[in-house]
Amino acid sequence: MKENIDFRELIAILRKRTVLILVLTIGVTLTTGIIQFYVLTPVYQASTQILVHQVGEKKGSATYSDIQINLQYTRTFQALLKNPVILEQVKRELDLPYSAGRLGEKIATSSESESEIINISVQDENQKRAADIANTLTAVLKKEIKQIMNTDRVTVLSKAEIVDSPTPVRPNYKMNILLAFGAALMTGIALAFFLDFIDDTVARPSQVEKEAGFIYLGSIEQMKHKKSLFRGDPDMNIRVKAGRSEPLGY
């Protein structure tokens, strides 16, 4: 097993594999960006709010019993918002290209504890369609409640609106690209160390000292062109034979 290496050797390994790390990091980041902007379909969200109250209820006149009744109705109406009957009506009114079940998957409802306000959010690939679904859903709910209970207990606090430059909720471009960059960078660094670990080639002077026990004195560069040792008479070229030098005859 290889011995532990110091910080300078770690830096040397990273420098040796700089091209690999850069190519991997840039390649993965660019690929992620291309997929985000040109392949994935953005999803937009539209939201609306409704208030559940008693008929004829005036501000400051509600009793504790009235509030508890309203909270019970809030939970009931929240469940009705994803009822197949109501979803089917919304689908028909808007002539949606998917089933009522698929429509229900696009709708999310929430209500804070002890609150009579229901938050409705709709996600769709089309911003206008998401807003239309949210507004139509509240309208159908009001109509159904009035028919069933012969009363109107729902008030729309805010309608879903269409904005000029909507920001999609999915995908999160900045976060995904940042995560891809970080993951690719860490993978490149890990790969660089792994390749160095399995490489048994002696590439650094410190390896000679550690693994062979030799003391590093220096290095000799390889000559680019073969030249005669002597520029004068070619007879002065020598050869070594049996431990002595002899002139070469031509």
TrEMBL record:
Keywords: Cell membrane, Membrane, Transmembrane, Transmembrane helix
Transmembrane parts of this sequence: 20-39, 177-198
Residue span, Polysaccharide chain length determinant N-terminal domain: 3-94
GO CC list: plasma membrane
Keyword Transmembrane applies: yes
Membrane topology according to the record: Multi-pass membrane protein
Top-rank taxon: Bacteria
GO terms assigned for molecular function: protein tyrosine kinase activity
Record's keyword annotation contains Protease: no
A family per Pfam: Wzz
Cellular compartment(s): Cell membrane
PANTHER family membership: FERRIC ENTEROBACTIN TRANSPORT PROTEIN FEPE (PTHR32309:SF13), TYROSINE-PROTEIN KINASE (PTHR32309)
UniProt family annotation: Belongs to the CpsC/CapA family.
Protein name: Capsular polysaccharide biosynthesis protein YveK
Native species: Bacillus licheniformis (strain ATCC 14580 / DSM 13 / JCM 2505 / CCUG 7422 / NBRC 12200 / NCIMB 9375 / NCTC 10341 / NRRL NRS-1264 / Gibson 46)
Gene: yveK
